[in-house]
Structures are given as C-alpha cells and as structure tokens.
Amino acid sequence: SKGRLIVARNDVSSTGIITNINILNCDFLGLKGPDITGIMIYSGLISDITIKNNNFYDINSNSQSRGAIGVMIGSKETNKTTNDVLISGNYFENIFGSATDGIETHAIIVYGKNVNVMNNTVKNLNYGFDNEAIYLKAENSKVSGNVLINCTSIQGALSTKGFAVGGNNVYTENKIISDQEGKGIYIVAKGGRNPTVQNNFVKIFGGD
Fold it and tell me: Residue 160: beta bridge partners?
C-alpha cells in the first residue's frame, strides 16, 4: 500500500479481542492533520501484533496543540491486557508534532508486556517535552538494535517513564546520534525498575 493510509482499531469497550494482526511492507506517506497517527491499535484485549518493514515519511501535526505518532499500540487502560508485540525493521523520517508538555509526539509508543522493538530507524523527530522517538510503556520487554538520528529531546530519544509501566526491560545495541539538544536514553519512575542497559552508543553534539 502507498499513500495516505491510517490503520486503526478502537473497540467500544475494553473487552473486544484484537489478536494476530500483521502489518507488513506498507508505506505511510505525508500524513498531516491536527492529531495524526499512522497505525493505532488502541483498545481491547490486544495480543500477537506484528508491525514490520514499513516506511513512515512526514507524519506531521498541523496544530500547535496536537501531536503526531507513527505507531501506537495499547493505552494506559489496556496496559495489563496488551501482550506479545513485535515492532521491527521499520523506517521513520520526519515526525513533527507539538512540543507542549502532555502532548505526545513519537515514532513508536507501545504499552504492555513481552514487547520487542528492534532494528527500527528513526530520523528527525522534533524537540519537545513529551517527544520521544521510542516510548516504551511496558514490562518484561526489549528495545534493541534501533538507530535514532536527530531525535533527542527533553525526556530522551528512547524513554520509559510514567506510572502505567512495570520494569525488567532490556535496552541494548541501540545507537543514538543527534545534533539537537536533549537526552539520549531516559528511564524513570516505575518503568525504571530492574532495567538492563548495555552496549548502547549515544553521541549528542551540544546536548545533555
């Protein structure tokens, strides 16, 4: 698929079952709007999700009070019922949304447990308060082999934070290079319990 494509599933209640979803080899190009998301699988009992080998270019909010997200899996409400998610081999370039505190702008945000975010590339995500290239709100999960270029921000290019997350996550072999200010890896609150952080490379020119 090529062009303006948004894939979404939002059940009317938290009891709907969303399972065995595979989104592979798609192009998400030039998505613009006041509150824009490329892929959203948001509500229900979510499991066995694969997002692999897709391209996301120019995912941009045209509002100063709204965010932009490439891939969003789960939510605070479904954090305990979202399981077994793979986000791998995707390419993101130019993700721009509001820089205001409390407004989410990310290439990837994912909730749950047994999540693997691996071998993705994110290039150019604008600096802001809640702007992170990869935002993991999960437990017993792994973030590995990702390359993040010009994605550093106030709370990191790669971040785990907040009270909807657990711990025991592994962050390994990620590469973060940036010309903009901000932090590289940012792990705090309950999401910071028992992390394994090893063999990552972070180089920020003039940042934190």
Answer: 187
